[in-house]
Design brief:
This protein is mainly α. It contains five helices and no strands.
Amino acid sequence: MIEKKEEYLQKKIEEETKKARANAVSNKAVATAALKRRKVTEQELDRLAGSRLQLEMQVNTLESANLNAETMAAMKKASDALKVIHGNLTMDKVDSTMNAVNEQRELANEIAETLANPIYAGVDVDELKAELDELQQDELNNRLNEADHVPVHLPPGSVRAPEETTRTAVEDDEETQLKELQAALAM
């Protein structure tokens, strides 16, 4: 409606300007009256433009208020949704749950550590090593005793002194036993 009124006033201003030009030389009174009407019409057009600006500002304010109202409604819905989600949750319940989770994690770690330890973890390794050394020494002693009773076969034509023969046999037997022991320890 304001736009139509502005168009009408604009046409009226143009008509009054034409009348004033047409009568400027021939009839100054008519020209002056046309200029006065044009001036009044221009003031009316300015007031109308001011009103239009005020209405546009009101429209913007209403749109902004509507947007604010929608935003608030959305925020309220979000708040209500959070209340539903959190339900009966309290910090005490959260702390209690977290403590229970931590206890279960610690229990799982203890179980994992227990399963990772070897079955013989309770056995004293130094004691086992000492017992093994004792068994090896006993075995070497037994072999040495058996070596004392083994006859030494010499190739025909070679003669050795009995003391030298025994020492050589014992040294050979000790070397053999040492190699066997090294092989056994390497396993």
